[in-house]
């Protein structure tokens, strides 16, 4: 199941710039108890394992977008320091929260993000816009922190932010993928190093369940470039509708869990 999830995560990473994190969290919450992980730790383990796998998934997606000229590296450089700090702090907060609180936080986040993508206003594109400056670093702190708490690569925040700043949708997706690598590194480290002793059974580092993280990452790396090609073939408005529908489905899955 983990490699199958990796294929879905990779496609979503390339198509939407989200690293597949939200769908991974929803699926892992169902699957991890079957591997001996208690319900009280399942949500934390799902979030942590998702963040660990996102590192390679987002890296593969970012490379595919980079080859097509769709990653705004100056913007990534401005956001990276904030993403590192936010990802680490967010993981510390998540470790301290109850699993049920985290679950409802993910559900609420999915619905809010979907509403923003459908009803939010965007600026008209202004040529080759490359957002930069301290404001992007500050935004990175918030994006990193929220991403760590809900187990995502930050695409559902980074993409709307960049589109609002005037970046074309496909470039926003590519840039978001690169940012997801930074978020994944900081968050996964936080979940691994700050979990209570013996939080999970064997084959785990802190809250990161290695069979899930590795199994997902191996196939997602191969699937992400295909998602990137799809993103370049689909128009911006269509991408937003797909994005919103995806988020609502994830929320519904968690409600049924």
Number of strands: 2
Question: Segments where pLDDT lies below 50 for 5+ residues?
Answer: none
Largest sheet: 2 strands, antiparallel
Number of helices: 10
Q: What structural class results from the helix and strand content?
A: mainly alpha
Please tell me how large the radius of gyration is: 16 Å
Helix-strand pattern: HHHHHHHHEEHH
Query: In which range does the helix fraction lie?
Result: over 70%
Mean pLDDT value:
83
Domain count, please report it: 1
Strand arrangement, major sheet: 1-2
3D shape: globular
The end-to-end span amounts to 17 Å
Beta-strand content bin: under 5%
Subcellular location: Cell membrane; Membrane
Keywords: Cell membrane, Membrane, Transmembrane, Transmembrane helix
Main location: membrane
InterPro entries: TM_pro_TauE-like
